[in-house]
């Protein structure tokens, strides 16, 4: 019985190693700008090296082309994928909002109205009446995140797998949170609210300003990257049927839940600041 | 050296314990609350999702730290 187990494990290890070697050969050409490659010499034994290579490959964001201004501005894969998603969303929204009528709306329009209404109700419930001016931004973010988290199934690297993308989104959220606090209470009231509920909490309140975007950024990044790495490992072991349920969970369920949670937390923090 | 790195990454993965316990507790309480008051289900599940997301954050940080250990040092 033990021998059988050992054989199966060895067999799996062989498959994984072979695939990793194959991938390493393929990816050696594209590795000119690998950030982790520049960090220094490799240490450690050969057993973890193949795993490390895979992880690096997943973490690595390829440079697609360089804009020739000054020293050259590298354009990463995630940026290009973001452009494609933006183009698709813009074209889709242009097509879907054409020929809207008040009388006798078509099926398409009814569906659209139901979706927008549900989203608006959801944000209205968290932000309250005064938060109406922020609803279009939040809807844009949730649609963009939903599409980009799922974009992994089309064979591209999801842009949210890149830490820079999630960091940018989290910074935008941070500025929006502080802005809506200032807009609601005025500059004086905003700074006074740092002393709530007691003045001793001042350092905590200041730290919270920076901890919120960090948590938002790493939550999204970690979830998407974790799902991506697990999917890659599953595809090494069994590329045929096994990845389908995993893909349903990691790509669809997790992707939508994370998009939902990102905007949910942002609007929660906003309503907290506006109180 | 390699085994030490592996042990470090493994210790970073222990953050999963806290997240697991936290999410389990939250879910059990939410199920109790829904059983007691089925009409408040939407509110309860909204708060449950928020709590789960926050509790899960620690596990994600552990994962990111473990990954960085393996990638940077391995």
Q: What can you tell me about this protein's structure?
A:
Chain B: Keywords: ATP synthesis, Cell membrane, CF(0), Hydrogen ion transport, Ion transport, Lipid-binding, Membrane, Transmembrane, Transmembrane helix, Transport. Chain B: It is found in: Cell membrane; Membrane. Chain B: The chain crosses the membrane at residues 6-27, 48-73. Chain B: It is a multi-pass membrane protein. The complex is a heterodimer of chains A (275) and B (74). Chain A is mostly helical. Chain A folds into 2 domains: 1-31 and 48-60, no CATH class; 63-274, no CATH class. In chain A, 71% of the residues lie in helices and 3% in strands. Chain A contains 8 helices and 2 strands. Chain A has helices at residues 2-27, 46-59, 77-96, 107-127, 135-150, 163-192, 202-237, 243-274, and strands at residues 63-67, 73-76. In chain A, helix 6 (163-192) packs antiparallel against helix 7, helix 6 (163-192) runs parallel beside helix 8 (243-274) and helix 7 (202-237) runs antiparallel to helix 8. The radius of gyration of chain A is 23 Å and the shape is globular. Chain A starts with a helix and ends with a helix. Chain B is mostly helical and 74 residues long. Chain B has a single domain (2-69), classed as F1F0 ATP synthase subunit C (F1FO ATP Synthase). Helices cover 89% and strands 0% of the residues of chain B. Chain B is built from 3 helices and no strands. In chain B, helix 1 runs antiparallel to helix 3 and helix 2 packs antiparallel against helix 3 (41-73). The mean pLDDT of chain B is 87. Chains A and B meet through helix 2, helix 7 and helix 8 of A and helix 1 and helix 3 of B.
């Amino acid at each position: 019985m033990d021998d059988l187990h050992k054989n199966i494990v060895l067999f799996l290890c062989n498959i994984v190693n072979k695939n990793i070697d194959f991938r390493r050969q393929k990816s050696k050409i594209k590795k000119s700008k690998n950030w982790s490659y520049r960090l220094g010499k490799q240490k450690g034994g050969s057993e973890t090296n193949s795993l490390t290579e895979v992880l690096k490959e997943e973490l690595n964001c390829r440079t697609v082309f360089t804009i020739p201004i000054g020293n050259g501005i590298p354009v990463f894969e995630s940026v290009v994928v973001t452009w494609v998603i933006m183009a698709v969303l813009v074209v889709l929204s242009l097509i879907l909002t054409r020929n809207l009528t008040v009388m006798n709306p078509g099926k398409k329009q009814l569906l659209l109205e139901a979706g927008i209404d549900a989203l608006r109700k959801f944000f209205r419930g968290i932000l309250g009446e005064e938060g109406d001016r922020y609803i279009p931004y939040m809807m844009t973010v949730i649609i963009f995140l939903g599409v980009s988290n799922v974009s992994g199934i089309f064979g591209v690297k999801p842009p949210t797998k890149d830490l820079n993308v999630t960091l940018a989104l989290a910074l935008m959220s941070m500025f929006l949170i502080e802005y809506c606090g200032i807009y609601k209470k005025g500059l004086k009231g905003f700074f006074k609210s740092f002393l709530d509920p007691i003045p001793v909490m001042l350092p905590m309140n200041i730290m919270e300003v920076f901890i919120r975007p960090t948590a938002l950024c790493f939550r999204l990044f970690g979830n998407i990257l974790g799902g991506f790495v697990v999917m890659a490992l599953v595809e090494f072991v069994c590329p045929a049927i096994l990845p389908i349920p995993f893909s349903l969970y990691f790509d669809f369920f997790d992707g939508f839940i994370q998009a939902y949670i990102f905007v949910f937390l942002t609007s929660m923090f906003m309503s907290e600041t506006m109180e | 050296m390699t085994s030490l790195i592996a042990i470090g990454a493994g210790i970073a993965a222990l953050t999963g314990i806290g997240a697991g316990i936290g999410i389990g507790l939250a879910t059990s309480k939410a199920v109790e609350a829904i059983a007691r008051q089925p009409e408040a289900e939407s509110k309860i599940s909204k708060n449950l999702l928020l709590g789960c997301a926050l509790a899960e954050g620690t596990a994600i940080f552990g994962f990111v730290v473990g990954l960085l250990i393996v990638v940077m040092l391995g």
